[in-house]
Amino acid sequence: MSDTKDAERFAMIASVWNSRAKGLIAEMDLKIERADQKGVQIRMPFNPDFCLDEDGTILHGGVLTALLDSAFGLANFLAIKDVQTMATLDLRVDYLRPASSRADVIVFADCYRQTRHIAFGSGKIWFDTGDCEEVARGSAAFALTRGKGSLLDKMNTGGPGG
Amino acid sequence: MKLSDIQARCDRVPFFRHLGFSVTEANDSNFVARMPFEQRHIGNPVLDTYHGGIIASFMEAIASLTVLDDQGSPPPKPINLTVDYLRPGLPGTLNTRATVLRKGRRMASVETVAWLEDEGKPVAKGLFHFLLV
After folding, report:
1. Residue A86 structural domain
2. Does A84 fall in a domain?
3. In what order do the strands lie in the sheet with A105-114?
């Protein structure tokens, strides 16, 4: 596939993913900043609903886990050309620092190895504060179903439930 | 700790309200909670299944409750987690049981299982480590 076609495909996937109107990913109000075969970078604005305290000083770790899981999904769609569906086999997250900032959260994720049946992803999270200190790191494995007509195509054409 | 005290504590946590669970059993080292399905929990918009991160967050939330000494304890600090996804998270009320495997002075290890209708057919299992100091 040519570079132009790749770029078009990445842009299409990103636009379908960005425009999905329901579920947790819509709630998180994610914005894709970079999306290609080498990985994805996504921005999540601060949201008081995701905090541990009423004052909104610290994010719950679970949100970071959810953010990593979401980013892995998108990274897989970009890196694996004929992926139809995927199921998360397992997810591991290390919480490296307290998530105590109101800055935007940024996640980077990539699919660093794919076989016919399995994909492996890794990712990291930091706040957009300038010092870029990692707040969390995660890795996951996915079971792949390859074939024509991906989940994103179904979202694009308003398939069942979409 | 009384069930009503635990629920009151949960209701003060914005993210726990977002998840929308209620604690139904709370013994010393064994907590059970249920979470009704909501649109905002969806991960796969075509199949309408739970977001894997919501399942992990729900299990982490219940796991964190099991290691509290009393109502006044600060929330434990999560160190890391491992979640195995065993079955599709189909739309429906999700249940979680969290069991303390070991609680020392500094560290606690908590095991969780999440299921839809049959605890014997889990949707996910988890292992969570917390720092208590």
Report:
1. 3-156
2. yes
3. A31-36, A39-44, A105-114, A118-127, A134-146, A83-95, B77-85, B124-131, B107-115, B94-103, B30-35, B22-27
CATH of the domain at B67: 3.10.129.10
Q: Distance between CA atoms of A123 and A121, rounded to whole angstroms?
A: 7
Return the number of CB contacts < 8 Å for A and B: 129
Whether A162 is covered by a domain: the verdict is: no
Q: What does pTM read for this prediction?
A: 0.93
Q: How confident is the model at residue A153 (pLDDT cuts 50, 70, 90)?
A: confident
Beta partners for residue B124, in sequence order: B85, B114
CB contact under 8 A, B14 and A22: no
Minimum distance, in Å, between the CA of residue A20 and any CA atom of chain B: 8
* B53 inside 8 A of chain A by CB: yes
Q: Phi/psi class of residue A69: alpha, beta or left (left: φ > 0; alpha: ψ in -120 to 50)? A: alpha
B47 interfaces chain A, CB cutoff of 8 Å? yes
Query: Domain for residue A24, yes or no?
Result: yes
pLDDT score of B45? 84
Here the tokens at position B76 are: 């434990």
As for how many domains chain A has, the answer is 1
Residue A42: CATH number of its domain: 3.10.129.10
Question: Complex ipTM, two decimals?
Answer: 0.94
